[in-house]
Amino acid sequence: MGTALTPQQIDVLAKLAPRILLCQDPDTAGQEAVARSREGLERHNADRSRRRTTAVDFRIVRLPAGRDPADVVQADGGDAMRALLDGAVPVARYEVERALEGDVASTDGRDIALSAAADAIAPLAPSVLRSELIQLASDRLNVSASLVEGVIADPERRRAARRAAQSKRPPRLPPHAPGRVDRSAIDEGTAPDHDDPGPEPESRHRNGAHRLLDRREQTERAFLAYCLALPDEGERRLADADLEELFESPMTRRAAEYLRGRVRTPAAALPPGDEPLARLVAELVIRAGGLEATPAKLELEALQLDLSRLDRLIAGARASGAQGVRDLAVERQVVLDQIRHRLT
Asked: Which domain holds residue 216?
C-alpha cells in the first residue's frame, strides 16, 4: 500500500519466522516505503544484537513493473510467484540496486548514485554481503572499490549528495567545445592529446573522485561520439566490435549496442521509458556535433579504447594469477606505440 512498517508490526512479524519477505509494489510509493521501513528493521536487529539474539533476515521481493503478487499469480501462475519469493534479496542489496538504476550517464548523476549506494552499504558490518555490494557499485559505476569505500567512510559527502538529489537539479550537459587532456597521461595510456569530447574541465578536475569516475568511461564515450560524427566508418567499427569485451561501463555498452545499425538516426528508435539511455544518446549526439572529426581521430579513439581493454585484461590476469600477462603486455606496448606515433 506504499506505507511503512511500524516498529510494533516489525516486532510482531519477527516472532513468527526467522525470515521476513516484503512484497512492495515496484512503483515510487512502494520503493519509498521500503526506504522508510529500513530504519525500523535495522533498529529491531540492533536490539536483538544487544540481547545476543539472532537477527531477523528481512528481504525484498522484486516484483515485475506494474504488477502486485495477485497479478503475477493470475497471469503467470503460482510457480512464477514462488520463483520471485525464492529470489528475494537483502534490503541493503535492494537499495544499492535501486540507487544504481538511476542516472548513471552524467558525472553528477553517478556521484549521486555512488553516494546513495554508499548510504545503503554504510550500516552493514564487515561481511560477505558488504563486500559484494561494494564490488557491485564499483562495477556498475566503473570506479575503484577503494573509491566506494572512501565515500562510505565520508558521511558529509553523502549528505551533500542527498541535498543535491533533493534539489532535483538537472545534470549539466557537456559544452560543444572540445577540451584538451594532460599529455603526461599518454604514458599511462589513459587519454589522448587531441580533441576530446569529454566533460567540462571543471567537472573533470574538481576533485580526484571525479577524475576516477570519468577516465575510462570518457574514453568509451569519446569513441561513440566519433562514430556518430563519422557515420560510415562508425557503423563499420561498431558492427565489427566485440562490445562485451571492448566496453567496461554497462551504460556505454548499452548505448553502443543500441547505436549499432542506427548511427545515422540515433534517436529514431529509442525504447520508451528508458530515460538514462535517451539522455546518454542525446549527450553523444551533442558531443559529435561539436567535433572536427576525421578518420585519423576516430582511429586514435579506437586505439585508446583498445588500450583500456588491454589494461583491464592485464589487471584481471594479474589478480587471478592467470598466464598470458606477458603477451598482453606486449600487445599493449604495440597499441601504445601506435598512439604515440599518431600524436607526434
From this structure: 183-343
